[in-house]
Structures are given as structure tokens and as C-alpha cells.
């Protein structure tokens, strides 16, 4: 049951003191010459202790003071009678006792509240420390979700839960305390869980009593740790997937190179070797007689050399190494079946890895424009800005490109992110596609290795 306002309690304590004086005075007058003084004193002491136990010092102090006054005036000789002087003394004693009791009560209340707050703060810090330890250890988000029990116990709540928002608008309880408890999402103290700027879910705590000071801050701190755990898990998953894609891409490139060499140049060189061997075995034949065979060998070697150059250009374009990103991109634009508006503003050559990443982005995007966009024009802009290479490829095609689909786009994104850059694809249906890539001029890899 809630206590009345403090000023009301002070007024009630004053009334209790006045009533106690009247009752004790009547009792002492009746018990005089009949009951020993020690017995009366002990009875009064028990009454004051009972009042202190059940009502508090605010009531016990004025009751005790006026009881002693009544015992002195109406039980112990010489007896007193009420007069203006005695009434003034009584009122003075009563007022002082009430004031002292009020200050004492308020001080005790503050001390109790401070101790409770310290205990709650210590519990909050311990709970958050345990949750933070789980996050630092990189445990699965499910284990961090289960730590919602820590929050429920610290706040002495009826129930607590972590709720995840689903893409279809539904909500899923991923952790609850006590286990299996039903926690309404739209009630109680709550704090949103935001991951990478997007709403992920909410933490809900149903308190047993009224509002608990600092409850919302505690829940907010917990949700911050949960968001960190989810973000870390997503980054680890993306990193693992990216590494797997890089390994797969490297394996596929090696197999493709092996196949090209085996099916093309290797077969040609074997045939040429056999021709040379046959000419060697015909040692007595005049050179003029084998002139045709020698011509065949020379032509074959030239063709093999041309094939090697083609393969080498596929691995790393020669024009990119020799002339830089600007001329290499201009060559791509000239070969594009879709007209390309080109704007390249490079005062200096970026790092080789940055040039290669930018080149392959332009190459892949222009290929996609030609194959899928149904565009009439495309535009490529490259510039150095604030220590970054800014690259933008856009078209006026049908749009609807999904950067998460297709090995080409995914591979480019992995390459860009590996260099500390970022690739953003905006492709609304019917409004064309815009690809923006931002790469540091000195990549993190170059800084570490340089």
C-alpha cells in the first residue's frame, strides 16, 4: 500500500502526539497510587517501541516525548495542572519532537533510497558486464538474446523478451524470461534494437510494480549490446561468405586458364613439336623441300603467341598497366555497343590495385548495360575527390538490377570491399541503373604492406 504524502504524515504525527498526551495523562491519573511507577514506565516504553516498529520514528518520537511529559506531570509528584505555561511547554516539546522526527525520517528515507539505488546500479553494471563479455567473446546472438534474463532479474520484472521484426510485418520472440513466458509486444518498458541504422526488433520488459528509475536506460544499454552482437555476427557471416566466394572465384579462374591453355596453346605447340620432329627425322631432305613445314611452324608459333597475349590481357589488360586507368576505360567505352559518355578527371594515377578494381567495375557494368539494360546511352564518370577515387556508371535502361544476384556483381563488391571501398547500386524498375563506387586512393592493404 502506498504511503500518504510526507506533509500529511507530519500532520498525522502531530495529531498522534496530542492524542497520546491525553490518553497517557488520563491513564497516569487513574493508575496513580494503584500501579507502581516502574510498571507504568515499562508499559509506556513498550507502547513507544510498538509505535516505532509499525509506524516509524516520525510517529514514535512525538508520542514518546509527550508520554514522558504526561508521566512526569500526572504520575510523579509534584503533580502539575494545565495552565498557559504548561500548555506552551507541551506544544514546544511536541513541535520539536515532530520536527526532529520529520528530519530523521527524511534522512532515513534518503539513505534507504540511496542504498537501493546503489544496489540497483551495481546489479545493472554486473548484468551489462556479463552481456558485454558475451559480445566481446563473439558468441552467437542467440546466447546474447538469452541474457535478457539478466535484465528481468535486475529489474524484478514479471517477464522480459527480445522480439525480432520479420520482413512480412510479423514479430518473433527470439528469447523470453522466464522461459516460455508470453510477453505482449505493445506493453511494458521497451527499447528498440537498431542494426546498421535499420530497425531489427525490440526488447520488452514488464515490470512487477510501478516504474523503476533507470529502467529504460538499462534496457537501452542492453539493446545496444544486442545490436552490436547482431552486427558482429552479420559481419562475420559476410566475411566468411566473401572469403568462400574469393576462393571459389580463384579456383574457377585457375581451371579456366588451365582449360584455355590445354585446349588451345598446348595442343598447337604439341602439333608444332611433332612437325619439327618430323622435319628433323627427314635429315637428308633439302631445306627447300621442307620450306612449307617450316612456314607452318612459324605461323603456328605466331598464333600461339597471339593466344598467349589474349590470355594475358584477360588476366590483366596491358593498356591498364602501360597507360593507366583513363586510356583503359576509354578503350572499354570505344568497344561498347551502347554509346558511352565518358568523363575521366585523374590528375595522377591511383594505386595499381585501385586502378584494377575500377577498371573491372567499368568493364562489368558496361557489359551488363549491353546485355541486360536495354539502354540507349550510358555514362561513366571517374574523379579523385578527398583522397578517394569516385566512380559512377549509369544508364537509361530498364533498371531492376539486383546486386546480390550474379557472380559478377558479387565478385566486384567483394573486390571493392577488400580494398576498403564501398559499392552502392541503385536500380529502380524502369528508371535505369546507377552504380557508385568509392575507393581509397591508398587502400588499407597498400598502407599495411607499404
Automatic annotation (TrEMBL):
GO terms for molecular function: ATP binding; phosphorelay sensor kinase activity; protein dimerization activity. PROSITE patterns: PROKAR_LIPOPROTEIN. It catalyses: ATP + protein L-histidine = ADP + protein N-phospho-L-histidine. Residues 353-443 form the Histidine kinase/HSP90-like ATPase domain. The chain crosses the membrane at residues 6-26, 38-61, 81-103. It comes from the Bacteria. It is a multi-pass membrane protein. Its main location: membrane. Keywords: ATP-binding, Kinase, Membrane, Nucleotide-binding, Phosphoprotein, Transferase, Transmembrane, Transmembrane helix, Two-component regulatory system. It is found in: Membrane. Its EC number is 2.7.13.3. One of its GO terms (cellular component) is membrane. This is histidine kinase.
Amino acid at each position: 500500500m502506498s504511503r500518504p504524502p510526507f506533509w500529511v504524515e507530519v500532520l498525522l504525527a502531530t495529531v498522534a502526539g496530542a492524542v497520546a498526551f491525553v490518553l497517557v495523562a488520563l491513564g497516569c491519573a487513574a493508575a496513580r497510587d494503584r500501579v507502581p511507577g516502574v510498571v507504568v514506565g515499562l508499559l509506556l516504553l513498550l507502547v513507544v517501541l510498538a509505535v516505532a516498529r509499525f509506524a516509524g520514528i516520525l510517529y514514535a518520537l512525538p508520542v514518546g516525548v509527550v508520554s514522558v511529559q504526561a508521566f512526569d506531570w500526572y504520575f510523579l509528584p509534584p503533580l502539575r495542572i494545565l495552565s498557559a505555561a504548561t500548555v506552551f511547554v507541551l506544544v514546544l516539546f511536541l513541535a520539536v519532537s515532530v520536527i526532529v522526527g520529520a528530519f530523521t525520517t527524511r534522512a532515513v528515507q534518503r539513505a534507504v533510497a540511496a542504498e537501493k539505488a546503489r544496489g540497483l546500479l551495481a546489479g545493472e553494471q554486473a548484468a551489462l558486464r556479463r552481456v558485454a563479455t558475451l559480445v566481446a567473446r563473439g558468441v552467437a546472438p542467440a546466447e546474447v538474446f538469452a541474457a535478457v534474463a539478466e535484465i528481468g532479474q535486475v529489474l524484478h520484472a514479471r517477464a522480459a523478451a527480445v522480439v525480432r521484426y520479420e520482413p512480412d510485418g510479423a514479430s518473433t520472440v527470439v528469447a523470453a524470461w522466464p522461459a516460455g513466458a508470453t510477453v505482449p509486444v505493445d506493453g511494458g518498458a521497451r527499447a528498440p534494437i537498431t542494426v546498421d541504422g535499420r530497425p531489427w526488433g525490440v526488447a520488452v520488459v514488464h515490470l512487477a510494480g510501478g516504474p523503476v528509475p533507470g529502467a529504460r536506460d538499462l534496457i537501452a544499454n542492453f539493446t545496444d549490446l544486442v545490436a552490436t552482437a547482431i552486427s558482429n555476427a552479420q559481419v562475420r557471416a559476410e566475411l566468411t561468405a566473401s572469403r568462400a566466394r574469393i576462393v571459389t572465384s580463384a579456383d574457377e579462374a585457375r581451371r579456366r586458364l588451365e582449360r584455355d591453355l590445354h585446349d588451345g596453346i598446348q595442343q598447337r605447340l604439341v602439333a608444332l613439336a611433332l612437325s619439327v620432329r618430323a622435319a628433323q627425322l627427314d635429315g637428308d631432305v633439302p631445306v627447300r623441300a621442307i620450306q612449307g613445314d617450316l612456314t607452318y611452324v612459324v605461323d603456328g608459333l605466331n598464333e600461339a603467341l597471339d593466344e598467349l597475349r589474349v590470355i594475358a590481357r584477360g588476366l590483366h589488360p596491358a593498356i591498364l598497366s602501360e597507360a593507366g586507368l583513363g586510356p583503359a576505360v576509354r578503350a572499354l567505352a570505344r568497344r561498347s555497343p551502347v554509346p558511352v559518355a565518358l568523363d575521366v578527371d585523374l590528375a595522377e594515377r591511383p594505386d595499381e590495385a585501385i586502378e584494377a578494381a575500377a577498371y573491372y567495375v567499368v568493364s562489368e557494368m558496361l557489359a551488363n548495360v549491353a546485355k541486360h539494360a536495354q539502354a540507349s546511352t550510358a555514362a561513366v564518370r571517374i574523379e579523385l575527390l578527398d583522397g578517394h577515387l569516385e566512380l559512377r556508371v549509369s544508364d537509361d535502361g530498364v533498371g531492376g538490377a539486383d546486386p546480390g544476384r550474379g557472380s559478377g556483381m558479387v565478385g566486384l563488391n567483394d573486390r571493392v570491399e577488400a580494398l576498403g571501398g564501398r559499392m552502392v547500386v541503385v536500380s529502380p524498375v524502369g528508371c535505369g541503373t546507377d552504380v557508385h563506387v568509392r575507393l581509397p586512393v591508398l587502400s588499407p592493404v597498400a598502407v599495411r604492406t607499404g
